[in-house]
Amino acid sequence: MDAYSSWLELVSIKNKSAHEVIQKLKSIFSKFGSPDTLVCDNVPFNSYSFGEFSKEWNFNVVCRSPNYPKSNGLAEKAVDIAKKLLKKSLEEGKDIFDALIQYRNSPLKYLDYSPAQLLMSRICRTKLPISADLLKPTLCKGVREKLQLRLANNEKYYNKTATDLKTLKPDQNVTVFNHIDKTWTPGKIIDIAQNPRSYKVLDENGAVVIRNRFDIRESLNSYKSVVNNDFDMLNSRNCSLQANSDINISKHESSSDLVQQSKRSSLEIESPLNNAQSSSNYESASNPPALKSKVSGRIIKKPKMLDL
């Protein structure tokens, strides 16, 4: 949407890649010319290829603060108008371009001029019969004064409940609102970002993120990263595991020493018995038993049994 005339363009895209968006913008810029400043979201407009495209076509890119739609209210309003046009055209079974041209020819309530008159100094010709005199270009008078008055009124009513937030300094401890978990997490200010009223913040995971001042609060607690805590816990766990392994090794060594000592003592106990038995066997071998005989002198021989 054009910020001056509120001219709305609806373009169908296959995906939200930088290449696809650049091709569609080239088609629009070839009709109306390139703008001075493009206020947009971060993805994919903060990519390298889109930055090169902005340099080539000579316009500035201002990305809004992440997770803060109020910083780009005109674009959000354009999305709301486009959704309503699509819904009405589907309900009535009409073409979306019929609804779009009717919007471009409808006067704005705060200017009394239509987007077509503000952009092209004339209204667009439609299906309805119209006088040729009404299609002649005419200059729109007092537009800038009316725009400034409208902006002043908006600022006046907004500042009734709004307050100026304190400027933050680098290396200052803060808490950052997490829009996913809906919680406040610790962080540290790195520097002021290029986005309006935004800062580069080091979050608890060690990543540098850009957040609006509205999502940042001052904190008296010192910043400590969760990654460092996990690393310290891992180191302490490894140290405890190493200590337990050393204790187990020492216990194993002591138990093996005890086993070896018991084996040695058992061997020492068994060795004299073995020595006594071997000596008795030697003595019996060297001194064989005497043969028994009867009164008549006949030697008594033991019968040999059949050993099966």
Automatic annotation (TrEMBL):
GO molecular function: nucleic acid binding
Region listing for Disordered, in residue ranges: 252-297
Domain called Integrase catalytic: residue spans: 1-137
Classification via Gene3D superfamilies: Ribonuclease H-like superfamily/Ribonuclease H
Bias-annotated ranges (Polar residues): 272-287
Protein's recorded name: Integrase catalytic domain-containing protein
PANTHER family per UniProt: PROTEIN CBG26694, PROTEIN NYNRIN-LIKE
Gene Ontology BP terms: DNA integration
Signal peptide: none
PROSITE patterns: INTEGRASE (PS50994)
Domain of life per record: Eukaryota
